[in-house]
Amino acid sequence: MDEAAVELTLVQTLAVSAVKGRYLSLSPSFQRCSLASWIKENIKKKECCFYVEDGREGICKCGYPKIQHCDEAIKPEDYMGEQWDKHRHVREVPTDAFGDISFGGLGQKTGKYVRVSSDTSCESLYQLMTEHWKLRSPNMLISVTGGAKNFYIKTHLKDKFRRGLIKVAQTTGAWILTGGTHAGVMKHVGMAVRDYTLSSGLMEGQIVVIGVAPWGVIHNRHALVHPEGCFPAYYALDEQGQGRLSCLDINHTHFMLVDDGTHGHYGVEIELRARLEKLISQQSLGNRESGVTIPVVCVVLDGGPGTLNTIYNAMLKHTPCVVLEGSGRLADVIAQVAALPVSKVTLVLINQLMKRFFGQEYKSFTEVQVIEWTKKIQDIIRMPHLLTVFRIDEDKNYDVDVAILQALLKASRSDEHAGRQSWERQLELAVAWNRVDIAESEIFTEESQWTSCDLHPAMFSALVGDKPEFVRLLLENGVCVRKFLEHEDTLCQLYAHLPACFFLRKLAKRVQGGKIRRGQEPPPGSTKISLSHVAEEVRHLLGSFTQPLYVPSRYRMTKDDVRLAVPSKGLVDLPCSGEEWTPDTVWDPGRDLFLWAVVQNNRELAEIGWEQCRDCIAAALAASKILRKLAQESGEDDSEEAKEMGEVASHYEKQAIGVFSECHSWDAQRAQKLLIRVSPSWGRSTCLWLALEADAKSFIAHSGVQALLTQIWCGELSVDNPHWKVLLCMIFFPLIYTGFLTFRRDEDIQRQAERTEQQKLAMDSVFSGSSDAKIKRHYRGSSQQSELKPLNCSSRLMSLFMSPQVKFYWNIASYFGFLWLFAVVLMIDFQAYPSWRELLLYVWLMSLVCEEVRQLYHDFDGSGFRRKAKMYISDLWNILDVLSIMLFIVGLVCRLQTSGTVFYVGKVVLCIDFIIFCLRLMAIFTISRTLGPKIIIVRRMMMDLFFFMFLLSIWVVAYGVAKQGILIHNEDRLNWIIRGAVYEPYLIIFGNVPSNIDNTQFDLGSCSVNGSDPLKPKCPVLNDENMPAFPEWLTIIMLCIYLLFANILLLNLLIAIFNYTFQEVQDNTDTIWKFQRYELIKEYHSRPALPPPFILLSHLILFIRGVLLRYPPQRHKHFRQELEQTVEEELLSWEAYMKDNYLASTRQDESQSVEHRIQDTAEKVGVMSELLEREQEMVSATMSKRLSKLEEQVSESTKALRWIIDALKSQGCKSKMQPPLMTGKSSDRDDGESSGQETDEETAPHTFARQLQYPSSTVKRFPVPEEKVPWEVNFTPYLPPVYNQQDSSDSDTSVLDKHRNPGGRTGIRGKGALKSLGPNHILHPVLTRWHDAEHKVLEFLAVWEEAEKHWALPGCSAKPDEPLAQSLERILGKKLHDKTKSKLEAGEEVYNGYVDDSRNTDNAWIETTIITLHCDTALMEDLNHIVESSLSSHQPLQWREVSSAACVCPYQQEALRQISQRHNAHF
Predict the structure, then answer these.
(1) Which of 187, 543, 958, 1025 sits at 20 to 30 Å (Cα–Cα) from 1002?
(2) Strand 111-117 and strand 98-102: pairing?
């Protein structure tokens, strides 16, 4: 391999890698290089290689001039003496026209184009579009065909067509395929795309419009030619100079220019376009292998003969067509006859319609062409399930987009795959199109019965495709989330198909061990994501205090042994892919769906998932926590995404508040129980703790949450006790036994007594008059057993001193005592040797140190030491505690030294430490409702002051250094330098104006000339008169400017900042204070009862219990409560009910809002305007119809009058003309019309025998309209071809005329594919059996037809005089015939006679005899053995279900239908 080939291979390899990994960022030049190399390898063009003049000088028969031929073509050596042949003298070479195309002009975007050979592989073209042009695979292909010349279309129809076409393409993600030129229907499509682009303001439009045009008819195509591609090619639209050629439409996005080597020939692209449409229709729809392929629909406007062929061939391939009535010519002809029976569509009617709609063009049609048109139109309207006519004056299909989608659904509903598969295919299509309106009106009807399992594929597609409206629709129509997520693989697949988001990058990085680089997007589905990876990442986002949501078990099990623990149903067996779960793991499908939507920041899907959650408050708070964590981590990478995550997090905090408010308004105690209930679905956390971790200040500030915190703060004491009573009982505790204080137990007993009394009265009223005393005793006994008992004396005393409120009061008193003792020691009793007061201070401090250590190691919520230490350090008050203790230790060490200087330093350090201890006192008052918010404001102002001091220091240092340098020369004393440069300018701000800058106030005695006096500043530079020499005017101006900025500007700025901070924080201080109040309550709830220094006894007891005796730590049930399963189920059900109430009230508030009313009014006005416009259009259309009917009536009346005159003139009251029918409908038939046209559909002539294309050949039949089928009807132009598949001498007319098809004309003479002229007898024995014992499914014995590639009834040709037994033996084989011989001879004949078969001709046809035998149990064993042994033969046998899709041949389907009716089986 040479270097060029190696380089080309390398480029292609890199290109393919780039395409497959679309998240890789490649330079545009490299992409162009890879595209050029791929196109040269796979895409060809055609050129003439043999120049032969066609009679015009310098013009070849290919249409190109001589100068555009290569030298080899002008002087060929291989083709000398030959006639020019298109197939032989046109060769393929690498294409030379591809790249980007720019049309110029305002708002025009760049498109793609390529010149391709007419024989190019469609697989290569599809690869070019999807991989190199980066087009998404379509959800639908709309092939627009019709008039290629400019035609007139009514304005209202044109607007509706453009609007509907763009709507269906935009909503469904469809490709639009047209002819690509700037004329006719293609121009209308381009204008629709242009209007959409201009109205939406998108330069990169979402509409894909692909033009497939012939290269040889493109005007100005030379601008597109470049061997290496044009990026871009500038194409000019020149309609004036195009002549017979055509210009490309400037509004198409992509072009495929089909080249067959000729110039000026239209229609060369039709075959390639048909093959491309067929290939696209075979591609899978969406990402999943659901078996549903991309649907194709043909939209027809106007049109001529070529359009008719396109429609005809498309419908033969089961492609639905939508015809727009009113667009002209062919479309109007088809629209006029679409609703008529086939027997009414006659040659006369088609002639009249063509004359009416084609005008002068009708004269160019020959008689045979009209006959062919009639035949094709009859075949078209014989397939009504594939034909949809859009009429502007009908109520249904008012929009073109609805007509297109309904046409596709109608086609899929009536295809050969009937029943449930058809409905599922329609649903998949509707989901792919994202058209909820179509699904509601066409699929989810009263007739359709859906189960949850039937809707699971559609549910998956809707979730992955981000279609929230469809998800909600599917849930409303029977999807059960529990069944949908029953298998773990479904959830794994959902996470594998996550869209590009920050969570997916983190998850892929975790799966691949950190190999994903920053900013790199992992390809969807590229890695195997397991739920353990998801659990680890979610636990990281929720916090380490939670347990993993999906925990792999310690011991691996097989796939079949996997189980998930469900609280309400115990263990449920679920298959999964290698991951097993511990019994603590809870299976919550509502949570799983909600979590999947939350991590991708999909608000609409998450809202639907949240509505499916039972534990909705915890779910909302967990979502808020996850989103805020994601926003925090992704803030540097994507600020917009982080902002959106923050908004969604706030939304779910509001949702949690709304549901909790609803719960609290109904039952406060139950609502408080929801806050501290352990949630198994969210890592065994609680709502209260999730709210704290999510920084949900508004939720914590809710009155219900604060009531719970107040209740915890008071402990067993009642919250209604005044503070003075509590303080008095702290000193005189015997007062608690007098009822001076109220305990919560007393209140509970009183409430229970009231409830018991009410229940007793109710039961007495129920049982009044009843003598059953046993029931009464049972009721009273059960009520007495549940009664609460009052607290005893010791319990009351413990409840008093264990109350966090009382602990707080004792600790305040203790702290004030500590500060008083500290102050006394510092000011009065600080001796060389510590006194008893100072020793008591040290013991007191030791108790504080022990308490801080206990707080550091005390695991309140089981989150672990590392997280506890991190939380401890993050608290400002704890930092102050540690700092004060460290300073005290430093001061104590210095104080214990014998040196006097160090001793004094120790006292100074202790004095500074006293300040910090006093500042620490502010934390105690955060519990106060009055002082707590003010402390928050002070903290915020301190932060503002810190930034202000940075600004102020700039002015202070700037002025101080300048002043010091001007006044003092070379001051070398550091203390006086700092005093002059910093300290004095700082004092100036507070009004201390310096005197050394003014010569009038200079005093030589107040300074030292040489700076020798350490207590005096150095004098300024003096002159000869011992007066300052500095420029006095400059220093005074500097002082004024400094005072102006520092005193007036900066100080007022500080006041403004403080005012703004106060106003900003004042509204939220109450919320912030309530949020921070929790930490103080938690601290004192877990704190020992004894205050310092007596708390050392409690610490000693805790040390013995925890370290020496190793007792487990105590859990705080006030903050965390485990509920029984029945109680929890009842509580969750009540919470779900409250959530529904909240959502209903929210929707009601939204519906009553001003914005919603304005929007609703605007929609109603729009609907009314459309109805009025539509009414006007319908009135005009109705008037035109009435006028046409009136004209018809006048015409009929004229004929009647003429007949009356002739009748009167004739003798015997006879007339030469038949009396016309006086009907109100159009009767465009003349007298020569055959009466056979009035036949019903039941007696309609054969249809398969008149198919235009004879099977397995290239021969085409002569078109035979239905009215001309009978031999009795005169058909003068009838000239059918003669065809014999096998050479035969039976082509003599006299011989052929001896045999005439009893079904009528077929359009072809001879034997065709049959063996003999006349009837060809076929015998079909049909063996049936019951598949099940209930006799619901009937099966028949089928044989595989290798040539036709389908299962069929066993059978073969039978001689007319051959005995039945001999024929059956030859068909079934001796072995099978011997087993069924006695039964078959007594078999029942199902049908005997002529068969409408596509192989029939005028002189040869098929006649069949079908007999049936139902096998009993005695024959089944032998038959099954014969069927099994036949599987290895060239014609295997198999039992197949009797259904409409069992056989391909129509007459065999009809036979099976009759057999099923005889057995009362479903067909």
Answers:
(1) 958
(2) antiparallel
